[in-house]
Design brief:
By secondary structure, the chain is an alpha/beta fold. It has a domain of 69 residues. Helices cover 26% and strands 22% of the residues. The protein contains 15 helices and 21 strands. The strands form three sheets. The protein has a 17-stranded mixed sheet. It has a two-stranded parallel ribbon with strand order 7-9. A two-stranded parallel sheet has the order 10-12. The protein is globular, with a radius of gyration of 29 Å. The N and C termini lie far apart (75 Å).
């Protein structure tokens, strides 16, 4: 006995001397939360759509057994014990109920052969269901029963459930037969996430729903498609909707569903609308059926336009005043992004490689979008243009956009791999003024920042353009040429050179405007696309104003 006692005393003495015993309790609780957040299941339920996976409950017990003080602190923190899993035993559920001190629960529920859908599990039978406010339902790969767990789980939770997440593992895509979640019962759902592999757009009425996320994968069986009447019906049943995110769920419009005969759906509270991986025609048809407020933020990512003709864009939602505009083109990707104090629009296109270089479709689409955004661009003061080796975008776009930007003050132009001489010639041709009565492109321009990664051996076109603008009364006061990490300052003839901000230091994740997060999920596109959304891969724009 004595060796065991001395071993216990030694372990307790060492634990009491560890630095964790001297940390403030608030910091220790933050460490607990960080450990739990980082510890996820090795295979998330639906990693393709970035849905949240259940935390490993074992990690909570691991950190509470490091030393006596950590265990004491953890037991006194009720919020650590508010996440339940359907695999937990009755004794474990009882322990969490005891330590959670009446706080609301988040429950992860998995259906399958190990957990039949008609069997009431301890996680539901041992607690008051009114405490369950967030529910994650995962239909496992070995579950072939085409119904949601209505009677025992969803229906009792309808009066109190705030957040519901419905996903399915793997590629088995048998959907439920009844597109209703609560079967006509009243609900107070605030956030809803569902995969089209689980259920088509539900027909329930959601009076309190503020955040909606729909996901689908485009398989041949149609599980990733959503019929336009079903989508519009769902939106009509969400009068309080604030954010809508539709990712990889192809909206189907065909001859049976006429846009002209569809009633307009009013979403007066909607502040963010985000489509990801969608055809241009389907987006425009859907937008034409929605009545949105002018302060809405549109994020339309990976828009697919696979035609070699200019799109017939008849309408776009009215937007508020815009102050920043960005145009970028790289390979088959190109986008237009604009923002103002309260509203913004971000069109990101994915086109066919042959189409772009055969017919300059990217420039036609961007110019068409600019024409439709024209009334909202009157106050734009900052324009950023980024492109790959094809410098004709500078000339064609600036010449066409100049009349729409009467207050443009700052222009930033960048190219990662354009030839230096071609770049200089294109920029000079785009901004050179014409003799009266011809107009001067961007007459109010005061700052010009040029960023390239290949040296410009011949600056004559740029210098001649600056001289001509100064001679005709439209000088550019500040000009900065950045070549890789080496800057060359060119003072314009009519004013002194003033140093500008470094355009290489911008981090898109810290953008105060586009960093849109709900209490349940962020509204950013997947990380794999972010390397080019903000210009060519090495271009990190500064939020210069």
């Amino acid at each position: 006995m004595e060796p065991e006692v001395s071993s216990f005393a030694l372990r307790r003495e060492r634990n009491s001397a560890t630095f964790l015993n001297y940390l403030p309790e608030e910091l220790v609780s933050s460490i607990f939360l960080s450990v739990i957040a980082l510890e996820r299941w090795s295979t998330p339920p639906d990693a393709h759509h970035h849905f949240e996976a259940p935390p490993a409950i074992s990690s909570l017990f691991d950190i509470t057994h490091i030393c006596h003080r950590l265990r004491t602190i953890a037991i006194r923190l009720p919020f650590l014990w508010t996440t339940l899993d359907s695999r937990m035993t009755k004794d474990l559920v009882d322990l969490f109920v005891q330590r959670s001190a009446g706080l609301p629960f988040r429950v992860y529920f998995r259906t399958g052969r190990q957990f039949p859908i008609d069997t009431l599990l301890p996680v539901f039978s041992c607690i008051n269901v009114s405490r369950i406010q967030e529910l994650f339902v995962t239909m496992t790969v070995n579950h072939y029963y085409p119904f949601l767990p209505h009677n025992d789980i969803l229906l009792p939770l309808s009066p109190t459930l705030n957040y519901l997440n419905l996903v399915r593992e793997g590629f088995f895509t048998l959907r439920t037969r009844n597109p209703e979640i609560f079967r006509g019962r009243q609900n107070i759902l605030v956030a809803l996430v569902f995969s089209l592999k689980v259920i088509p757009p539900p027909r329930d009425y959601f009076p309190c729903l503020a955040h909606l996320r729909i996901a689908g994968t485009k398989h041949m069986d149609g599980s990733g498609t959503i019929d336009s009447p079903d989508l519009l019906r769902l939106l009509a049943n969400t009068p309080s909707l604030e954010t809508l995110y539709v990712i990889e769920a192809e909206i189907v419009w065909d001859g049976m569903f006429s846009v002209m005969t569809t009633e307009t759906v009013r979403l007066e509270r909607l502040r963010v609308l985000c489509f990801y991986d969608q055809r241009l025609g389907a987006i425009l048809n859907t937008l034409s059926c929605l009545a949105l407020n002018p302060d809405v933020i549109l994020q339309l990512h990976r828009i697919k336009y696979l035609d070699n003709t200019t799109p017939q864009i008849t309408t776009l939602p009215p937007l508020g005043e815009l102050t920043h505009l960005e145009i970028a083109s790289e390979g088959e990707h190109y986008h237009i992004r604009a923002s103002g104090p309260d509203s913004g629009v971000w069109f990101q296109f994915l086109s066919d490689f042959q189409v772009i270089y055969a017919a300059n479709t990217s420039e036609d689409v961007l110019a068409c979008m600019m024409d439709k955004l024209g009334p909202s661009l009157r106050r734009v003061h900052t324009l950023r243009i980024a492109m790959d080796a094809h410098t004709h975008l500078i000339v064609s776009f600036l010449r066409r956009a100049s009349p729409l930007l009467p207050t443009l003050h700052t222009l930033l132009v960048a190219s990662e791999n354009a030839d230096g001489m071609d770049f200089a010639a294109a920029l000079g041709a785009a901004l050179v003024p014409g003799e009266p009565p011809l107009s001067t492109p961007c007459p109010t321009l005061q700052k010009l920042h040029i960023q390239v990664y290949r040296p410009i051996a011949w600056h004559a076109p740029i210098e001649w353009m600056l001289d001509e603008r100064a001679r005709l009364g439209h000088p550019i006061a500040e000009v900065l040429l950045s070549i890789g990490c080496r800057n060359e300052a060119y003072p314009a003839p009519a004013a002194e050179y003033a140093e500008m901000n470094d355009v290489l230091s911008w981090d898109f994740k810290s953008d105060p405007f586009w960093l849109i997060e709900t209490p349940y999920w962020p509204l950013y596109p997947p990380e794999r696309d972010m390397h080019w959304l903000w210009g060519p891969p090495k271009m990190k724009w500064d939020s210069l104003s």
